[in-house]
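Batch job 17 of 40 flagged for manual review because the log was empty.
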Amino acid sequence: MKNARKEFSLEGENKLQDDNPIGPLEVARENLEVFADNLIMQQSLREMIDWTLTLEAILLDPDISELEKKQTEEELEIIKQAWSLLADTFYEKGFSA
């Protein structure tokens, strides 16, 4: 009798921990999470573009010091590397420009 209860209990735990969507509300929640993730990614990409344009404008300023120029170039390189990594990730997922 104890073994039967334990088996039933374990079977119930497996069902509770199942990652498959259950019903339309769960599917809607998952879709909402995907939408939110995409929205956050889109905003992040826009901000990266804005920051890149700002850094490039700083480099055009004739009054910046060599130290500021070097720091700006280094930061611009970091942004470009991050952008490339994101582009590679999108390509692996099947997205391309």
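Reviewer: the log was empty due to a logging misconfiguration, but the result itself is present. The mean pLDDT is 84. Unflagging and moving on to job 18.
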